[in-house]
Amino acid sequence: MDRCPLQTPLFTFGVIADIQYADIDDGYNYTRTRRRYYRSSLQLLKNAQKSWSESAVKPRFILQLGDIIDGFNKMHDASEQALDTVLRELSSSPVKVHHVWGNHEFYNFSRSALLRSRLNSRLDGSPSGAPERADIYAYQFSPFPGFTFVLLDAYDVSLLGREESSEEYRNAMAVIKLHNNNEDLNCPPESEHRFTMFNGGFSKDQLDWLDSVLSSADEKQERVTVISHLPVHPESTDSVCLAWNFNELLAVLRSHSSVVCYMAGHAHDGDYCRDKDTGVHHLTLDGVIETPPDSDAFATVSVYADRMVLEGFGRVTDRLLMFS
Ligand code: ZN
Q1: Class for the domain spanning 11-322
Q2: Does the pLDDT value for residue 3 go beyond 50?
């Protein structure tokens, strides 16, 4: 044979973001520029599940990048019911789902409730490490030898999910008040747009833990993909969607040769950049919630020794992510 056979990937995984399901009529985003398809988002999740279950190489796991149900559920006292509905759909296949937490998780549930909930995929997974502080929802897992995934908590420092009487809440309030003088803290300030209540950041404890995980991965020459709800590269999203201390997280990522990719959701519009200093791929996934019912928003990623190949469905763009 003079032709190379098609290479089989080492493993594949599915990724989906911002489902924001609610059993309510369509609505609009805050600026009323984009339609939100609250009910249809469940059908788009079904489409993703069907594609993954019928694929030739079954995904080893699914990454759910946060905002799985919409904050409106809280107003309708339907948080548990909506969560049941989406999790029932996700459990229709036996593939492990890794859940990231976004702002809408905290609109529906307190941090302590989430830690005990089915959205804590650290509980039923096989994480190979987590921060010492039990209130930080972060962990690492290795789905295949030589590959590590690190799930980060982008609302570790935030007004969301923390008790108003807590030291963490007071610290987060001090951070946001330094930049945002608006009466409504969901309204972005004129500069440093990201300092809003629907965003958050990473504590020093979490950054130190990530740094140690990545040092160990560097030594073992592993390939690391980091996932969270909030984007951290200014060229990979709108400035209003960035994590509060994105620059501190970027500095940690840039100081480790093992990092190959960072994935986030939250922005609803897909975006991408390759970090000029390190060649790390920063991917922001299109959100299901603002995707019309006749389209789709999910991806299947095939991992090879030297690259990841992202196959996008619907409005998600295909991408070849070469490792540096
Ligand atoms: Zn979000």
Answers
A1: alpha beta
A2: no
